[in-house]
User: Which sequence fits this backbone?
């Protein structure tokens, strides 16, 4: 009797779970469908759900017209700023943990920087960039994304480094390794998983940024989120381009959730939840 | 007392400061320079038409108090936050309960549900705008099947429907975040305690109040704080869907501040707004953290 009812409950829960997953997945599928529809199918009434034959012309148009450069720009700015933030952030986190530089105040002060709404600092930074000639340059966006992600990296890496027993480092130093060698050969291998997860999140934050890219770019280093919003014109909306360009931005994220699930909870909760 | 690490002799004095140089850079670039610049410009008079850099007193701050559009934006932001946050929390909790115990395809289903949370809010907004299109979107079509006649709701244009529209996109994108965090918190609740309570004949509400809630509360507080701060500065998703429209119906603080600074070029006034917003947020966060500490 009990096993019979638990069996049915399992089936019921599975059905519910599948329905929920479908609801959350549907908008992404709709986006993917738009990117693969022919113009007639996009503007069919009533709406056509599944394109008869996948039509890749939206993607080809993006590459032919050079719009796809926006994805490359996103890749460069997010990629380079992630590397910089990880290197500098890990070193700073190490100093904060092991040398207790600045005590707890520095660490808390740094994380509090993440709470400032970007729009509040956007204009001063815009003025600074105008006077430095950094508007619409790779360097400009990379520096900004590095600065904005450093608090997150320092905070996360601080948590991971705190978990390493200090004895290990001590014995390595007795063996004659310098501090920097200890960081490279002892600390880094031990925080590998956390380091990698933090890097992925840093990349996501930069990859998804819209406000700063909107304000600090004009034409040369426009990133993909700015490009997507550009297709919503006041006269017409370029549906197929929105679909295709958005999908180019979403595909890397599909790989992330597919492969990194166990790191996501800690990464997104600022280390508060150890999943 | 000498700490363990400083007992190791090396060039610590140089290194301990050299290593935090990047942190200092952050402090200067986003933590200090903008504040000084904001403070300075907010008491000058800089607009599209000219720049008067002499001290003008606090007239821009006085203007804040009488700016109906600003207070409306604050009201919209508050409303958006206090509606979206509980919905995300409750839905996230229910989803977490659904996935708490073993289930076939559990990992795959969780991965699918998580996807909205890691995509760009711009893409989320764009997707929902296309889905809510009055003719070519599937939402009106599905509603039409339910009510049995054609539905042509102008979701992002009709003032009565624009809030549900942006809330749908917001809740769709961030419920998975709450779900994931609550799932992790619930998996850490002591199962022996739960069994003991069940044997004692405690009802589900008592179990929730006496055992589950105290166990997950610290995590819930952090999740609410992170999401709350995100909601208060919401920009991207609303910008993509409505640009704050129709009129100023969905204008939030961030959108209003953007319009003032980058469309109207009211530089001094927008600096005063930015300073004011940072002040409110700082007070709110400190108050929230105090409460959390007291609750502990």
Assistant:
């Amino acid at each position: 009797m009990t096993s019979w009812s638990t069996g049915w409950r399992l089936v019921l829960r599975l059905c519910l779970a599948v329905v929920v997953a479908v609801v959350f997945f549907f908008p992404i599928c709709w986006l993917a469908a738009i990117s693969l529809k022919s113009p007639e199918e996009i503007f069919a009434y009533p709406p056509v759900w599944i394109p008869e034959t996948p039509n890749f012309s939206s993607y080809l148009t993006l590459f032919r017209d050079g719009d796809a450069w926006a994805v490359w720009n996103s890749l460069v700015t997010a990629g380079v700023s992630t590397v910089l933030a990880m290197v500098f952030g890990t070193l700073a986190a190490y100093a904060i943990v092991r040398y207790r530089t600045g005590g707890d105040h520095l660490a808390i002060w740094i994380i509090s920087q993440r709470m400032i709404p970007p729009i509040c600092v956007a204009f001063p930074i815009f003025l600074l960039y105008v006077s430095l000639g950094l508007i619409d340059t790779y360097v400009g966006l990379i520096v900004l994304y590095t600065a904005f992600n450093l608090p997150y990296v320092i905070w996360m890496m601080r948590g991971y480094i705190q978990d390493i027993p200090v004895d290990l480092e001590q014995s390595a130093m007795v063996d004659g390794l310098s501090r920097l060698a200890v960081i490279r050969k002892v600390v880094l291998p031990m925080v590998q998983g956390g380091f990698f997860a933090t890097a992925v999140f840093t990349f996501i934050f930069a990859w998804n940024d819209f406000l700063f890219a909107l304000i600090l770019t004009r034409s040369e280093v426009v990133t993909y989120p700015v490009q997507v919003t550009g297709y919503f014109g006041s006269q017409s909306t370029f549906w197929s381009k929105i679909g295709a360009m958005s999908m180019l931005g979403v595909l890397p994220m599909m790989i992330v959730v597919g492969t990194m699930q166990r790191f996501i909870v800690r990464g997104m909760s600022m280390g508060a939840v150890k999943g | 007392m000498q700490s363990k690490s400083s007992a190791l002799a090396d060039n610590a004095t140089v290194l301990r400061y050299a290593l935090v140089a990047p942190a200092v850079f952050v402090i200067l670039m986003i933590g200090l320079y903008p504040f000084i610049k904001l403070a300075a410009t907010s008491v000058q008079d800089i607009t599209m038409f000219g720049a008067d850099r002499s001290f003008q007193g606090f007239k821009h701050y006085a203007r804040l108090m009488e700016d109906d559009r600003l207070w409306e934006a604050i009201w919209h932001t508050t409303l958006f936050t206090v509606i979206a946050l509980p919905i995300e929390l409750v839905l996230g909790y229910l989803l977490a309960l659904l996935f708490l115990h073993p289930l076939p395809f559990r990992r795959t289903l969780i991965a699918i549900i998580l996807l909205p949370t890691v995509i760009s809010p711009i893409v989320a907004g764009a997707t929902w705008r296309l889905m809510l299109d009055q003719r070519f979107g599937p939402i009106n079509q599905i509603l039409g099947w339910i009510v049995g006649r054609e539905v042509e709701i102008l979701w992002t244009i009709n003032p009565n429907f624009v809030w549900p529209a942006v809330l749908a996109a917001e809740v769709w994108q961030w419920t998975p975040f709450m779900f994931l965090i609550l799932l992790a918190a619930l998996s850490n609740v002591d199962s022996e305690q739960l069994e003991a309570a069940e044997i004692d004949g405690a009802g589900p509400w008592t179990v929730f109040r006496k055992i589950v809630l105290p166990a997950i509360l610290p995590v819930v507080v952090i999740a609410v704080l992170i999401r709350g701060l995100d909601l208060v500065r919401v920009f991207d998703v609303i910008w993509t869907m409505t640009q704050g429209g129709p009129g100023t119906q969905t204008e939030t603080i961030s959108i209003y501040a953007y319009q003032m600074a980058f469309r109207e070029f009211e530089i001094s006034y927008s600096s005063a707004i930015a300073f004011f917003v940072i002040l409110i947020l700082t007070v709110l966060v400190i108050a929230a953290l105090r409460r959390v500490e007291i609750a502990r």
Q: What stands out?
A: The CA atoms of residues 92 and 201 of chain B lie 28 Å apart. The beta strands of chain B are 45-47, 50-52.
